[in-house]
Fold these 3 entries.
Entry 1:
Amino acid sequence: MEALYQVLDFATTETEELNNVLGKFYAEATPKFSEKRGKEMSTAQSKEYHKNSMKNIRAAINRHIHDLDRDIDIVRDKEFRKANETLDGKLKKNLEKGLSRPTKHKKIITMNDLEKINSYLYSSDDPIILRFRVWYNIAMHFVTRGIEFHQQLR
């Protein structure tokens, strides 16, 4: 991670410094402007990340730190309270200013469509269809967070 024009080494950076850098990052992080973003939302909203994006960025950084065998959790550890309060405050401020966009949920799959999917998945012993059947069963019975889990199944 590049912070304040310096490269930040997650493997060796002290907890206190990491807390400070993350707090500054959460406060200042903005997406690059694109034509698509400009068309889909107001100009002010296009300059801010969606709340789920910010939380996913934090989770990705946390996973990276765990992959480096560091025994810290930037989401739950009290040493990172300041950074997390900064993130929570920014998200709350965006909500108050009307910059927070609602989450767009997908339509619920109808029972008729679920029956068609089941019929297809149980119609053959083809290995590829079997793989889809396993993925479908895992998703239907164990997934509670939608897309976050589906990306891990790839």
Entry 2:
Amino acid sequence: YVGDARVVDDRYTLSVDVPDGLRCGNVYYGLVIPTRDVYSWGSVSLQGTLTSSFAAGCDGAPGGAFTYPFSLVRL
């Protein structure tokens, strides 16, 4: 996936549309649901969150979002 991160007030944000972002049931053969994934991280702390949003969930569940923390490391 390709995108450009933008920085505002020392915080980077990158949005990516992922066609198979949410996998339902069998991870290899189950239904896939597109997601909008937004990565956001501090330019100094390098700590961030990924928020993965979807319009509809698995098995007819309503849409929603999952949020995951992450850390970046300078090499």
Entry 3:
Amino acid sequence: GITFEEAEFFMEELRKTGAIDRSVLFMNLANDPAIERIATPRIALTAAEYLAFEKDMHVLVIMTDMTNYCEALREVSAARREVPGRRGYPGYLYTNLSTLYERAGRFVGKNGSVTQSP
């Protein structure tokens, strides 16, 4: 999640350049509930995959703050009383992150693509 001021900055920059007309934004703030911080990247990637592989677009996904995503995983893991791994994060943290980053790329027979920038 990002701060309200950072969200406003991104929106204003996209408006100034006209890129807002070609953008789909999924934003969550740092103070949003943990489940929302976990769900937002997956929802954004699902939309990106639809645009890339069903609509043949080249899509750039920018995930601005994965630290808050990891913190949300830690909160949920602690609430579920799971045995913590390194620094209190769940043992499946790296596997979970890979399920996000491995969604970038191209498919044979499809014209679109998904590019990610963490």
